[in-house]
Write a structure and sequence with these properties.
heterodimer, A: 211 residues, alpha/beta, 5-stranded mixed β-sheet, two-stranded parallel ribbon, 5 helices, 23% helix, globular, disordered N terminus, disordered C terminus, B: 396 residues, alpha+beta, 4-stranded antiparallel β-sheet, 3-stranded antiparallel β-sheet, 16 helices, 12% strand
């Protein structure tokens, strides 16, 4: 399905594979920070232990030349969702913190990730390494309830001070949907008869207008 | 010109002497202020004529798009992402659509890619022309506004002619671009996807855009007051900018030769002959100058692209109900404001499991406390304006 998965199966069976062009870079980063690399659809993702989070970013900036801080955010992996689409198969419930760094010459980029427990997610802040992470961590704090230890000003960024709950958690309901069903649902009803047919025969012809 | 922060700080140090003990005041700017491009509030501690500890207060326009995207289908999300940076709505759609296509492993027809490229560069011209209009206005010069907005209106007319929308085109489809009205119907077929006269009108509009760049160059770059207000003001060193995630023209003005259009493969920019514009000093003037040059580069790109639009389909074959297989990717694009990207987590359903929106203005604005530390109060507006953020792009 994804290039990542096919790589893994090929390795397991020991058949000859074409090495992904990013594989060497991904392995180099993983070795330098002590993590595990995978390539998912053109994105290099390196998973590191939570206690090496700050150190990972320092190594990436100082030794790997990844000095551009792109973003920091989180993904909640939960088996029950109050709104939205649930996962197709059960996962280990956790909060995955992701951050992406890049270089400013060849356009290389790496997404670092680490897993935190769902009930009390805590991790060291990387503001000392990348000051730009300040607002990103405040956003992840209010949206997911992650505590960033050592953050200089861990208060709400968007939400009012007294706001209760963490809106991007999967357990947080979307109140407008509770009040009124989404009218856009009619758009996604299956087409009568043939739900999966292609765009097919009625596709527009395309001449240049002033050929 | 090389100046460290202290030199700049003391450049116009005239009257605030050490003996004159003044009481600190808290100055509040906004949330409604013409220079904030939306709703932004700044709280600054003011010592004499200088501002310290500037704290931007954001969130007035937070619409929760990341949560809303989780409860919508893929085709419905393009309407949301249009509204993130409304000055260049079209450009916001591209990275999201490309992220979906990459996970689906869809091959987008070359004609659709060229149409996307042309419209993206038009969105860039529109966005930069708004900056060309508003920035001198914030410094007290009103006339460039009329020159810039007049040409922007012509470009918006072209965008509207193709997409039907001036600000929120919602024109991209997964696998291509939206067919012209009626072309998807069984009973009525149109023979074209771009409106008649589009190439002719675009050529005319681009030559006028290039002309107005000359006029803006004369009006603004030839103005001594503008030079005094912007040169050496709000200097961003490249390493500080990178550590805050500042991107786009703001980063290139500091001399960093980096443009995602050169290094990422989301649109066929490699086919065209164009240059990355870089500044040298990283001050307000260079940020203005970089954007002016980028308008020229974009206009040249469009001129080349419309001569080479391939014929063929504008839409890859996709199922009527779009389902994106399980996958995870980050796709970023060079938007007018800087790096815009989507971290997309999909799981085979009708809609995504998680969409992280990385917007350029959010990171560009987050450097304000650093760059405004110790700035003169009139310079606050000059520096803020030169970063060219839109609050919809900050709050999302």
């Amino acid at each position: 399905m994804t290039s990542n998965q096919s790589d893994l199966t090929n390795e397991a069976t020991g058949t000859e594979t074409t090495v992904h062009p990013l594989q060497e870079f991904a392995d180099g980063v993983a070795a330098a920070v002590g993590g595990v690399a995978e390539i998912t659809v053109g994105t290099v993702k390196v998973k590191v232990p939570a206690d090496r989070w700050v150190e990972t970013h320092r190594i990436a900036r100082d030794d790997l030349g990844l000095g551009f801080f792109s973003f920091l955010s989180a993904i909640e992996w939960a088996n029950e969702v109050s709104v939205g689409y649930p996962l197709s198969e059960p996962v280990e419930e956790r909060i995955e913190v992701i951050s992406t760094l890049g270089d400013l010459s060849e356009g290389k980029r790496v997404t670092f990730s680490t897993d935190l427990p769902l009930d009390s997610p805590r991790i060291q802040s990387i503001v000392e390494v990348f000051p730009g992470a300040n607002w990103h961590e405040r956003e992840a704090h209010e949206m997911f309830g992650i505590v960033f230890e050592g953050h200089p000003n861990l208060v709400h960024l968007y939400l009012p001070d007294g706001f209760m709950g963490h809106p991007l958690r999967k357990s947080f309901p979307l109140l407008s949907r509770e009040v009124k069903p989404w009218p856009g649902d009619v758009d996604v009803e299956a087409m009568p008869g043939e739900a999966q047919s292609g765009g097919g025969s009625d596709e527009p012809s395309t001449e240049n207008p002033e050929a | 010109m090389s100046m460290d922060a202290d030199t700049i700080r003391h450049l116009s140090e005239v009257s605030v002497s050490v003996e004159l003990q003044t009481e600190d005041m808290i100055l509040n700017i906004g949330p409604q202020h013409p220079s904030t491009h939306g709703v932004l509030r700044l709280v600054a501690r003011v010592d004499g004529e200088r501002a310290f500890d500037v704290q931007p207060v954001i969130g007035y326009m937070h619409r929760g798009y990341e949560k809303l995207a989780e409860v919508r289908t893929y085709p419905q999300i393009t309407t949301i992402v249009n509204r993130i940076d409304w000055v260049s709505g079209y450009a916001n759609e591209i990275p999201f659509i490309v992220a979906c296509e990459k996970i689906m492993e869809l091959e987008v027809p070359p004609r659709a890619q060229y149409i996307r490229l042309i419209l993206t560069e038009m969105a860039r011209i529109c966005s930069h022309l708004v900056f060309m209009a508003s920035y001198p206005l914030e410094l007290g010069a009103a006339s460039p506004l009329f020159f810039a907005l007049r040409e922007r209106e012509r470009v918006l007319d072209l965008l509207e002619g193709v997409t039907g929308g001036r600000f929120h085109p919602n024109f991209n489809r997964i696998g291509g671009v939206k067919p012209a009205y009626g072309s998807g119907s069984q009973t009525r077929k149109l023979v074209q996807d771009l409106p008649a006269g589009f190439y002719r009108d675009t050529r005319a509009a681009m030559s006028r855009v290039l002309e107005v760049c000359e006029e803006l160059d004369d009006l603004v770059a030839g103005n001594e007051i503008i030079h005094v207000r912007t040169k050496g003001v709000g200097v961003l060193p490249p390493d500080v900018a990178a550590s805050y995630g500042v991107s786009g023209p703001n980063l290139r003005a500091s001399g960093v030769d980096f443009d995602l259009r050169k290094v990422e493969d989301y649109l066929p920019y490699d086919d065209l002959d164009w240059n990355v514009v870089t500044g040298t000093n990283g001050d307000c003037y260079d940020r203005w100058w970089c954007r002016l040059q980028e308008i020229r580069e974009s206009a040249k790109m469009i001129q080349q692209a419309i001569d080479n639009v391939p014929t063929g389909p504008i839409q890859a074959k996709v199922p009527k109900v779009i389902k994106v297989p399980k996958g995870e990717t980050y796709v970023r694009a060079e938007n007018p404001k800087g790096e815009m990207g989507y971290y997309l987590v999909t799981d085979g359903g009708n809609g995504p499991y998680r969409v992280k929106i990385r917007s350029a203005s959010f990171s560009n604005l987050s450097i304000l406390p650093w760059v405004l530390e110790g700035a003169m109060i009139p310079d606050i507006i000059a520096i803020m304006g030169s970063l060219d953020f839109v609050l919809g792009d900050v709050d999302r």
